[in-house]
Amino acid sequence: MSQLLLLNGPNLNLLGSREPGVYGAATLAQIETELAAEASTLGHQLSSFQSNHEGALVDRIQQARREGVAGIIINAGAYTHTSIAIRDALLAVALPYVEVHLSNVHARETFRHQSYLSDKAIGVIVGFGPKGYRLSLLALHEHLAAL
To answer: Reduced to 3 states, what is the DSSP secondary structure of residue 132?
Structure first.
């Protein structure tokens, strides 16, 4: 059984009440519960972590390697467009990761089109709402199975 890590960045703790027209009605807790069940079905154990603080996300990424995590699913929220520190942490631990976004960031404000994470990700899932997390899990699962 592989250990996987789901990381969520700033404001994602407000899912379900934050701009439901953009982000949907599902709460982060609902997404995490459903994804953990799906991961278990695929033979993985999924841990989840959310923080509004960049350093906490960096610390959690670094901890992942020490724990033997096999891969990461990350929705860095706004840090996607600003955080070289999160990028550097992901590169430092050298774990495969999938970048996911609930909304289609390419159909939104121009500043959201830039990602500091996507060029090193095994893939990027955008615009499918909460289903994007499941698609990310399936992609990571298939990637790990092919190793």
So the answer is: helix
Query: Which tens digits make up the pLDDT trace of 31-65?
Result: 999 999 999 999 999 999 999 999 999 999 999 99
Mapping DSSP to helix (H, G, I), strand (E, B) and coil, where does residue 145 land? helix
Catalytic residue at 79? Answer: no
In 3-state terms the chain splits into helix, strand, coil percentages (rounded to 5) of: 50, 20, 30
Active-site residue 101, yes or no? yes
Q: Please state whether beta strands 44-50 and 97-101 pair in parallel, antiparallel, or not at all (unpaired).
A: unpaired
- What distance lies between CA 36 and its chain's CA centroid? 13
Q: Which of 79, 97, 101, 116 is catalytic?
A: 101
Q: Which of 23, 79, 97, 133 is catalytic?
A: 23
pTM for this model (two decimals): 0.94
H helix runs in 43-83, sequence order: 54-67
Residues of the chain with pLDDT under 70: 22-23, 107, 109
